[in-house]
């Protein structure tokens, strides 16, 4: 008779939890997964999928304008926020159903409700206790709000996906990828957008030239960017909001304030510490290279570990845990050279080191870069410019970082990421024939370099 009810119990049916569940079940394990909200997690339900749909929607106002330069007569367009929200909700419901079927077809038991740890081998859900040989924590993250008066009057990305009406004036608080993405979404759909960031430049952690270039493009589109700016308090002002600003900056009057001020690991009140699971100072689950926590049979993957907050990374980590537990050998996940994208307008694609990181590692780096007006805009008349950057380690000539701001950057960088992970050299880039006319060919035709020292 089995000692435990399940071989693996997963808390959280997001991208990492679902992947771990399916792979573990395919390897013969008895698996259950608990979900307190909707299967699909942050990415599918209130993250990258609905956000990308809204980015598509926001792009159309420029597409209509650009069409005139190509001879099209476009009638005045009207946008309906309720129609977009209804279409988005239908698609999210469809994807949620797919996730449920994937779990069922894999033989995974899906339990609805909030699960907490009673001890290292026991979870409690809706008053029922269930035992498991192994437990996986995959509860993701949650948007954070600053501790200022009136913060409850602001929204986060969670609520932005459920607004019944499009705000006319939006203050975006934050300077990370979520902030610049939603600034572009609201602006593209017709709102007046101001972005407030306390730092010296948006997108901390990205390449400095990329940061500067994107800010210039946002401002050129009409988004007001306030750097070194802090919100001190929010209060009701008739139907809108009055925002009190720090350091003597003038007050702002808006219809909505959206906080994009970071995400915190979703570990509160899960019983983790009582079970002996170690958390760091930020509340993230501490894990080793194999995603094992301080308790031998408890693992954690995805945003709850605060390693790399990207859906494909959570999926890979979940797969690795399943293989480690029920496969032929332990599997770890490398977190180096992960391609990523920011679906700003224009978008960013990046892989490998920033210039600052390359200088810190190698002491010097060869920099190739190009700024140009995309071919599309020679007739549209739009002033938007693309930016590309290659970073090369001088001794080995390996390409150690690639960055792009411009149309289709995420699609282009996905392919370039393979080359960087493979350790290809600048010579091999140069030997590759470009596809003409494309923006991507610029990456294999760059000739002029600058050697920069740490």
> Which consecutive residue ranges, at least 5 long each, have pLDDT under 50?
none
Largest β sheet strand count, sense and barrel closure = 7 strands, mixed
CATH superfamily of the largest domain: FAD/NAD(P)-binding domain
Mean pLDDT: 96
Net shape: globular
Distance N to C terminus:
64 Å
CATH topology of the largest domain: FAD/NAD(P)-binding domain
CATH architecture of the largest domain: 3-Layer(bba) Sandwich
**What is the share of helical residues?**
25-40%
What is the CATH top level name of the largest domain?
A: Alpha Beta
Structural class given helices, strands, pairing? alpha/beta
| Assembly context of the chains | single chain
Could you say how many structural domains there are in total?
A: 3
